[in-house]
Amino acid sequence: MPQRRSVHTAPRPPVIGVTACIRTVDGSRTHTVGEKYIRGVTDGLGGLPLLIPALGDDLDIGAVVATLDGLLVTGSLSNVEPHHYDGPSAAAGTLHDPARDATVLPLILAALTAGVPLLAICRGHQELNVALGGSLHQRLHELPGRIDHRAPDSPDLDIQYGLAHPVTLTEGGLFQQLNGGDTRLQVNSLHWQGIDRLADGVEVEAVADDGTVEAVRVTRTESFAVSVQWHPEFKVRENPFSLALFGAFGDAARAYGTRRRAR
Questions:
Q1: CATH number of 100's domain
Q2: Measured distance between the N- and C-terminal CA atoms of the chain, rounded to whole angstroms
Q3: Which single residue of 33, 36, 207, 235 has CA 20 to 30 Å from 157?
Q4: 231 is catalytic
Q5: CB 45 within 8 A of CB 250
Q6: Is the full-model pTM beyond 0.90?
Q7: In this structure, is residue 162 part of a structural domain?
Q8: Residue-wise pLDDT tens for the chain (263 aa)?
Q9: Is 233 known to be catalytic?
Q10: Domain region containing 125
């Protein structure tokens, strides 16, 4: 009788929700996600990206969160509308995305409540702070003493996403651990807005030399939940810290997914 071969199944990849924006493409309203965020999930942590449309109230947030092992809140060219944090009216010409605001702000809160691991990037870093009750500076480059955090004026992505300035990591914090114990890290910079009033329930993990809050960790949940103002997803495998950050996010998502399926 022939022997039965043992069957080895590959570990199930974690399902990572990836937030989308609304853009008009050839006259049509379109839900879009930059490929670098998708590659951050596939290449940075071996996950399965699930794109979340910006449908606002027409999206069942609870059902979405129930399917996720992790949530990646993406960056965007648009800015959070200031009425969400009682801020002054935005300057003329500022790009907004109300459908994204209506989707992502409640999605962040639902994910944190459920304990879903979360990594938020750039606009996502700002959204996390607003969702938890903080506020934003709308034009950092106009504030006295601040450096210009906007992207270099170049069509070359390697220049746009090139390392721009250092940040100091909080002594004893998670990011210092991910950085091999070093408290200094070089990051890229492609943003206009930044955190003003820090939300309750978060701790600063990184700050730029001009005082701009560059990363936070959510303390109101025991799950992995962090945000960064820079873009670690760009060529994630070429930057040791970016790979460590996505790796930690992936480990947390796998652990959460195992517990979720057991329930």
A1: 3.40.50.880
A2: 40
A3: 207
A4: yes
A5: yes
A6: yes
A7: no
A8: 445 444 455 678 999 999 999 999 999 999 999 999 999 999 999 999 999 999 999 999 999 999 999 999 999 999 999 999 999 999 988 999 999 999 999 999 999 999 999 999 999 999 999 999 999 999 999 999 999 999 999 999 999 999 999 999 999 999 999 999 999 999 999 999 999 999 999 999 999 999 999 999 999 889 999 999 999 999 999 999 999 999 999 999 999 999 988 88
A9: yes
A10: 15-136+194-262
